[in-house]
Amino acid sequence: MHKSGFVNIIGNPNVGKSTLMNALVGERLSIITSKAQTTRHRIMGIVNGEDFQIVYSDTPGILKPNYKLQEKMMKFVTGAIVDADVILYVTDTVEQGDTEGAEVVEKIAKSGIPCIVVINKIDLSAQDKLEVLVARWHALLPEALIIPASAKEGFNVGAIFDRILELLPEGPAYYPKDTLTDKTLRFFASEIIREQILKQYEKEIPYCCEIEIDTYKEEPTIDRIAATIYVSRDSQKGILIGHKGEKLKKVGQKAREEMERFLGKKVFLQLFVKVNDDWRNNDKQLRRFGYELE
């Protein structure tokens, strides 16, 4: 008997969805920062065994869209509810009573798809509060299994995996057994650059940026990568570059170091900055940056 299926990870921003997927996959595929809205795309991570294949899917955090980019991001979330074999709904120990999340929970309840509610970050909460949260989620999703966990500390990640394996339907592998993800090296290079922008800048700068890999040349001992960072306005370009280019240089250095860890080889990285007026509200530009549904 061989089991296979799609396990889609859904939840509010900054509850630890990406950390959980990386822990379940055993690889660092999704970027992680303390800022909300770090995940923009739907990213797959694939775990294989002799008699199973689990295709995990990390999705953007649930939010009320303020521009077209966020509308595209939310389409990844609604699509993830429809095509899942198992839903991992991730919350944490902080009460979040937003209406967008409530609407998604209602859709999950009506979907009939097996669901596991992961109450993440329990290392940051007292036991009595956790018991209240477990009772709350039992009331909201009576058919779901509730698992308290700490993805960062690895607590109960094994229990989540075991339950997923139980819920998976029988079926063949969807991807070759040596496949780790559906994304390319170019995609991960762009995500690593974006992660460093999220870490190095405050306020609106990280959210106005998009990265495009211009060239990616693989050589035996080094990968040579050139990338353009697009911003929405000239003023943002100046802030991103910084005085005498020092801020951009730091982003490039940190991104290159992370790429070398990820790839296990040397990287030569060039970064450029250009203005692409209001790209977040431009359908043509959003398609160019890969935000159309597959």
Write the layout of secondary structure elements.
Elements: E1 3-11, H1 17-25, E2 43-49, E3 52-58, H2 68-82, E4 86-92, H3 99-111, E5 115-120, H4 127-140, E6 145-148, H5 157-167, H6 185-200, E7 210-218, E8 222-231, H7 234-241, H8 246-263, E9 266-275, H9 283-288
Parallel strand pairs: 1-3, 1-4, 4-5, 5-6, 8-9
Antiparallel strand pairs: 2-3, 7-8
Helix pairs in contact: 6-8
Describe the structure.
The protein is α/β, with parallel strands linked by helices and 294 residues long. Helices cover 37% and strands 23% of the residues. Helix 6 (185-200) crosses helix 8 (246-263). The two termini are 30 Å apart. The mean pLDDT is 87.
Q: Averaging pLDDT over every residue, what do you get?
A: 87
Q: What coarse outline follows from CA principal-axis ratios?
A: globular
User: Strand-and-helix sequence, N→C?
Assistant: EHEEHEHEHEHHEEHHEH
Continuous helix count = 9
Number of strands: 9
Task: Summarize the main sheet.
Answer: 6 strands, mixed
| Alpha-carbon Rg, integer | 20 Å
Strand line-up in the sheet with most strands: 2-3-1-4-5-6
Poorly predicted ranges: none
Percent of residues in β-strands: 15-25%
By helix and strand content, what is the structural category? alpha/beta
Fraction in helix: 25-40%
